[in-house]
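@channel sequence for tomorrow's demo:
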Amino acid sequence: MLDCAIIGGGPAGLTAGLYATRGGLKNVVLFESGMPGGQITQSSEIENYPGFFEHTKTGMDFMDTWQEQCFHFGLKHEMKRVERVAKTGKHFTVTLENGEKIEAMAVIVCTGSTPKRAGFKGEDEYFGRGVSTCATCDGFFYKNKPVTVLGGGDTALEEAFYLSNICSDVYVVHRRDTFRAAPSTVDRVKRKENIHLITDTVIEEVLGDAMGVSGVKLKDKEGKITQLDTPGLFVFVGHNVNNSVLKDENGTFICEMNEWGQVVVDLSMRTSVEGLFAAGDMRIEAPKQVVIAAGDGATAALQVISYIQEQA
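structure tokens (generated this afternoon):
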């Protein structure tokens, strides 16, 4: 019987493991099929984590120290994929990919979410080298430079507005002639002088060289091809929440979710199922920042410690 099973090895999961083990739990296992670290390991540079200001460090370098610290205090890592979690009586059953079942008193799920790709040519090639899915993370690299934003929802327009306070010009490309974002958001964007809306248009290809992105090739509804020279491209076409472990054998979620498949939690990271916690990018209203995910993980672990003490 595990004290706590942690599913997902990104910043939220690792921090949960650190706080759980340092907080006195003796049998805590982190399940992550690959090496822990999460999406941040794909970043070429970390600049907005408090107290960490070494520009030569990559996301992989950044997370290496987290693993060493967490495992030092007794967190165990099982390189196995979890199929599902179920509440069985007072405890939980964690089913692994090989059919093995493990019992746990409490579970913290930190499996995150994955930004959707738009599918244009060069998107994967230049991801992390001018193509980004996080304005807060990477916007500063384009200070006083023009950038392109792809998308038409609330996130795309809110991020475009954020970028407009950093960049010289922001070109918003949307495939339709109307936006899905809230009317107030659309109005605010339209009133910002350095935001330029390009509608009924798609991105055909991102252009660049060994130094990174240099521009994008656009195609309007009439088939006309134009080129927009910007060194940065921000893609906001949605996220896929990695929530499959919270589905039972019938495909029904075991806890409350919102319409986008995000886990509904309170400020303590508690789900609607007692003893089950969710942290990081898979929860509702997640800002998708490493510092927030780490805080979520710490909060969830402290709550698990209290929960287990109450069960004794």
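heads up for whoever presents: The chain has two domains: 2-115+239-311, 131-235.
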